[in-house]
Request: fold
Amino acid sequence: MMDAAKTDRQQWMAILANARPAELEQACADLPSRPDYHLARRPETGLAMVRGRISGSGQRFNLGEMTVTRCALRTADGRIGVAYIAGRQPRHAELAALMDAMLQDPEQHDVVEASVIAPLAEAQQARRAAASAKAAATKVEFFTMVRGD
Amino acid sequence: MQLLVSSEGSLLPGFPDPVLDSQRVFRAVLQAMSRPGRAVSNPVSVHPPKPLNATTAALCLTLLDLETAVWLQPDATRPNVVEYLRFHCGCPLAPEADKAAFALITEAAEMPPLDRFPYGDAEYPERGATIIVQVDGLLEGSGPKLTGPGIETSRRVDAVGLPSWFWPALGESSGRFPTGVDILLTTEDAMVGLPRSLRLEV
Reply:
């Protein structure tokens, strides 16, 4: 439930998490350099309980469990990158955590933003738009006749 | 694995292999508790956050989770330790000793008296705390005479750094079985289990 605007970090973490693994791999490969890091938490896969709220704003309830892979690493300059990815994706989790750490570094931020985040965001946007367009094409208009009694 | 030099505030990695390493350490704890007074070596090497020693850190990674409240002695209440426990174990930190399921003692000489910790009660004896006490050395063969479950005839064990009231207090609390506290003495490489079933002659 969103009560405030997402922070920058939340936004880029969402884009990294929702990226297609192959796209992320490709975008990261294009980066000029990547810092050394050590894994504070190796990519591990587990279950998380997804919760919802009745009617979107009421009482919380357990919706069901989903598989999540998480990773946390620390780069050479002390920044901690964290990632949580849906499904069993250890490589994706590690890459996303590395990108998260690099984006926190003011010197690396712009490069990573431009070569990784922007293309991924665009691709995700395009996919969403395509799906919406497809769904819109199936929309049925209901015209109600007002009866004169 | 490339490991960076850790400063006070950095986040250290946990077990190299979380699944198998925690099982190895758990097996060691089982050995220590079922054969009281016998030193069991720590099977997994970890980099602990100071002032914890490697065995204490391994025990934390194995035994602590979000359901076990931990009381940290003031000497152990440092940002790097708190961060390590929060990140790897997710355990809540107990503000008072009497609300804790586990306790970490890094300065044995200053540890609070045993009855500050929960002993459990007749219906829920498992609510007695497990106290991990860091000591400077373990001496098998000297110290008070221990008898009881897990010891064939008797054993002797002592540790460097324990306060002088420790053994008499333990002897007294063993009369309260099945309630009581369970103690694990740890050094850098080994641990000794002192479960509440132990009987002592000081």
